[in-house]
Amino acid sequence: xxxxxxxxxxxxSAPPPAPDPAPTLESSVADAATPTPAAPVVPExxxxxxxxxxxxxxxxxxxxxELELRQLELAYxxxxxxxxxxxxxxxxxxxxxxxxxxxxxxVKRDPANALSQTELGLVYRAWGxxxxxxxxxxxxxxxxxxxxxxx
Length: 151
Fold this sequence. Notes:
Elements: H1 2-12, H2 25-33, H3 44-59, H4 62-75, H5 81-92, H6 96-109, H7 114-127, H8 130-133, H9 139-147
């Protein structure tokens, strides 16, 4: 009987899993031929116009900066930077509704952009929207409320 238990015990254990086969030449060539999505190419004119908008912002010419950023927003819908900077401009001017709209647009254009999401959250908080649009019990929201200090 003891011999039968030992013999059957060996049947109960599974053999170790076989290692994954090495990639074949064909699969390596196919993987190399698959294009990876490239970042959008920024046209030279867009870079120049964006630099001009930032120069206007730094010089305090907010109306000129707003005009340049709006033009960039319309001409290059694939980029979030003009919308982010418009949101920051409006936020500094105390125009929180416009800031939220611009930052929401930036999030639509580039959902992975952490800056636009963070700034949008701060605008919502300053505007008093966070309690209506988000769950107030979020641990992250509570930690922001308790750790962010005014300058």
